[in-house]
Amino acid sequence: MTVRVGLVGAGAVGARHARTLAAFDDVELVGVCDPVPAAAGALAAELGVPAVADLDRLLRAGVDAVWLCVPPFAHGDPELAAVRAGVPFFVEKPLAADLPVARRVADAVAAAGLPTATGYHWRHLDTVERARQVLGGDRVRLVDVRWWGTTPPAAWWRREDRSGGQVVEQATHVLDLVRVLAGEVTEVVGAAAPSTREARDVPDATAAVLRFRSGAVGTASTSCVLPLPTAAGLDVAAAGVSVALTETSLRVGTAEGVEEVIPTVDARRAVDRAFVDVLSGRPRAPGLVDVAEALRTHHLACAVAEAARTGAAVRVGEP
Length: 319
Ligand SMILES: NC(=O)c1ccc[n+]([C@@H]2O[C@H](COP(=O)([O-])OP(=O)(O)OC[C@H]3O[C@@H](n4cnc5c(N)ncnc54)[C@H](O)[C@@H]3O)[C@@H](O)[C@H]2O)c1
Fold this sequence. Notes:
- Pfam families: GFO_IDH_MocA, GFO_IDH_MocA_C3.
- The protein has 2 domains: 138 residues, Rossmann fold; 164 residues, Dihydrodipicolinate Reductase, domain 2 (2-Layer Sandwich).
- The longest helix is centred in the C-terminal third of the chain and has 20 residues.
- The relative contact order is 0.15.
- 36% of the residues lie in helices and 26% in strands.
- The protein is built from 10 helices and 14 strands.
- It has 319 residues and is of the alpha/beta class.
- It starts with a strand and ends with a strand.
- The strands form 2 sheets. The protein has a 9-stranded mixed β-sheet, with helices on one face.
- Nicotinamide-adenine-dinucleotide (NAD) binds next to helix 1.
């Protein structure tokens, strides 16, 4: 079976998904669109597929699914258009720059019963599954999660109302893994170092303390003032075992010694493959995060961002 897909948003991550999808034997990339015609045109020309004027036309072209690779502020309308057309979609993280749009999308998806997938690709790393097994959830007592890096070049990234801020846009990847490895967070307190750059209102840094339902505690920190990416990952302490996880490495410490593990999975490819498999009627890979599950992570990220912004204790909402 050939799966016919369309792609919206021909930016950095849209180009990555389009190249991955175009390389699958069982996928036909029907077209790409972007409000900047030159962006759609360049990607379409590279892959030898049509540039399409807008999502409506893509949906009318008869697609089995669309990949929505738009910036955080642009969510809502594309997803609701796909739902109205009855077309399953893959959507990049975060679900939105804020909670209300993400909730509206999740409600519409649930009512329609449509298959969805999201760009939380770290969940496809075999090292994440290994970490989950060695930690055994309940024994986790402490988590330290970090995203320390640069200020990305996109203008939208620098404005909190456009990107959601660094916690919501970037640290969401590792906050998602906090949920996988240590369970749900119930409450967050935090503080932020305000921006020292005129063109950016995203804070220079944030720091938060997390309280877990299990009784465990954690810290979450971000910074975007560094000259190069420095740390994105999490350290976990559990009774008798420690775990240090990044996108490219896993270190497990026990009384027997330290084990270093390198992922054998290309998670960025695996996330696309997994959703194509769903669309083809094949079994669902356990790492695939649908919109409903992504909404839980978005609730956590929004709570961490709000706690840092306001200094108040924030309860993590539930979908
Ligand atoms: N999962 C990952 O590893 C990963 C990596 C990078 C980015 N992302 C996410 O992907 C999203 C896009 O990031 P990016 O780096 O590709 O950004 P980008 O700025 O490079 O590209 C965004 C593209 O979307 C287009 N666009 C803007 N508004 C639109 C709208 N209303 N409708 C349709 N298209 C619109 C822009 O013209 C641009 O071509 C972000 O949410 C980001 O968090 C995920």
